[in-house]
């Protein structure tokens, strides 16, 4: 069998199944047979035609788990049959960020499944340097290593230590991942989300306390969780202008804010509030290979799993038919994964 089924985003709002030749890996690549692929907000935006720096046609999917079926002749660090996760970021390795080890914010970053064809396909050839060994991990969880790695990067940016009081704002996949990882690191974590369904998800699947930021007594509830204080560290994964502008009001003096969610506009907050607290404020973008490796370890140890994040599963063969109804217009979706 030398052809494979793939799903192509031909133009906004048009996904079509197509048969193509299975690629032959070049000498530094490995061919993987895909087992599961997570569906990300980026895929949803690309489908809708509102993903910046995006061109069509494109094969979406950057949260990928598969088995190695063929190795390029120069690839020595992997074996045929190994299960791997894809690290989808292709950094230039030459810009100042890359040279400083911060490949996650490379000036010319290209992402497999966004800027080049990705995992909505039965097979994919990937540079071996973009693979992470993921043996012994549930394939659906392994597909979620990428979003969990983004969460892990935010937790690392915040330098969270055991016992620290951490508020995660926004219980989408990245917020859920950040909460789960901060908890695994021994922090005291509380999660805020305006959606009752998402609060319920966090309470039941992560066993963490939740608060509603739209409640009139939100601050009182928050202080009650943290022994009277505000949070030492706030991780904002909302991408909401209102929430991000308000984050300086949620930390105590000497606190830290990490913005992992992105709002496409300007933020505005009180400088006196920012200053009097001597706030540390930072952005968190993508993830580095060490964040991926850390998530792989936490999954292998059972501290992270698919169920914490995942709400929906879709068979690949039917994805084009159900994408608009069951993914785009699905109000209950937090995280979906495609199974092959
Ligand atoms: Zn993603
Ligand atoms: Zn670079």
Note down, in words, how this protein is organized:
This protein has 340 residues and is of the alpha/beta class. The protein is built from 11 helices and 17 strands. The strands form 4 sheets. Strands 3, 4, 5, 8, 9, 16 and 17 form a 7-stranded mixed beta sheet that branches. Strands 12-11-10-13-14-15 form a 6-stranded parallel beta sheet, sandwiched between helices. Strands 1-2 form a two-stranded antiparallel ribbon. Helix 4 (145-157) packs across helix 5 and helix 4 packs across helix 10 (289-300). It is globular, with a radius of gyration of 20 Å. The model has no long low-confidence stretch (mean pLDDT 97). The structure holds zinc ion (2 copies).
Question: Secondary-structure blueprint of this entry?
Answer:
Elements: E1 3-11, E2 14-21, E3 29-39, H1 41-48, E4 63-71, E5 83-86, E6 89-90, H2 96-99, E7 110-111, E8 123-127, E9 131-133, H3 139-143, H4 145-157, E10 165-169, H5 173-184, E11 188-192, H6 196-206, E12 210-211, H7 218-225, E13 231-236, H8 241-246, E14 251-259, H9 271-276, E15 280-283, H10 289-300, E16 312-315, H11 319-328, E17 336-339
Parallel strand pairs: 10-11, 10-13, 11-12, 13-14, 14-15, 16-17
Antiparallel strand pairs: 1-2, 3-4, 3-8, 3-17, 4-5, 5-9, 6-7
The structure holds zinc ion (ZN) (2 copies).
Short description:
The protein is α/β, with parallel strands linked by helices.
Contiguous runs where pLDDT drops below 50 for at least 5 residues = none
Helix and strand run = EEEHEEEHEEEHHEHEHEHEHEHEHEHE
What is the mean pLDDT? 97
Sheet having the most strands: 7 strands, mixed
State the end-to-end distance: 16 Å
